Amino acid sequence: MLNISFGQQFNKPIVITLGFFDCMHKGHVALYDVARSIANQNDCLCALLTFCNNHFEVLGMDAKPIYTFEERLSIYKNVGLDVVASATFDKQFMNLSADEFLQVLSRYDLRHVVCGFDYTCGRDRKNSSYVKQYFERIGVGCTVVEEVLQDGQKISSTLVRKLLMQNQVEKANTLLSQPYFVTGVVENGRKVGRTLNFPTANLKISAQKLLPVGVYAGRAVVGRQSYPAIVNVGAKPTFDLQHNSVEAHLIGFDGNLYGATLTVELTKFLRPVKKFDSKEQLANQLKMDVESATND
User: Fold this and answer.
1) Three-state DSSP state, 285
2) Residues 148 and 99 in one domain
3) What mean pLDDT value characterizes the chain?
4) How far apart are CA 121 and CA 268, in angstroms?
5) Do 147 and 217 belong together in one domain?
6) Nearest-CA neighbor of 211 among 177, 174, 244?
7) Do the domain assignments include residue 164?
8) 64: which of 42, 102, 210, 229 fits an S-S bond (Cβ 3.0–4.6 Å)?
9) Backbone phi, then psi, for 211, in 5-degree steps?
10) For residues 181 and 265, is the Cβ–Cβ distance under 8 A?
11) Span 32-43, pLDDT tens digits
12) Could you tell me which of 49, 13, 44 has the C-alpha nearest to residue 31?
């Protein structure tokens, strides 16, 4: 999969899908499936446009992307995308009119454009009908994909984010192309888990990422191996540590993970993060967490 900058010269023919794609939910997958089918029919590459930074921050909003850009690249690769065109959402980009944005996009060898029914672009917020008319005027086909519903609700990144923050990770995962995950490099921790017979991998996580606080069952992927895990997302109040972090106990793993890149999927919410009166109480709870994580 190729990663190019928005506006960068790229001479191969592409079908491109427009959006932000801060995850790949079923609505996004529907867009991709249309683009992939058209790309295959026309013997060209399938591409996607996204932002490589936290656009919420630029807009002054108190929100974080569901995934980091690096995590999203791995998702795009998993679904089979050929090309990612990544734009930096800054004041210059934000001030582009729809026509200015579409003119830059038109520099590519576009064979077709795909967008969602609710897509808008430019400071003048032109909608998908305008985008379709724009490209058809210059001889490029454009397909607008209708909304995708589940249980009567429109599938959206906003809905996924809401479910995650409500600890409804199982429901959120039904909307996603793969279970919600966190990727980070394992760093040295306080090694308290070892004294409880529950050694944990402490992940270095980007501050620009949504973290649904709680204790979860999940799976940890190390290289080509996968292990069941219990995962603490958030503070460690038993030890008076209030900053949010991610640490995972890999069930059945014996080895050294320091410096390794670890991907941890969250598959089931077990309980809220809470403060225990002693390390012994915490150890007993962790035993119950392991039982809950492995009995499904």
Assistant:
1) helix
2) yes
3) 93
4) 36
5) no
6) 244
7) no
8) 210
9) -125, 115
10) yes
11) 999 999 999 999
12) 49
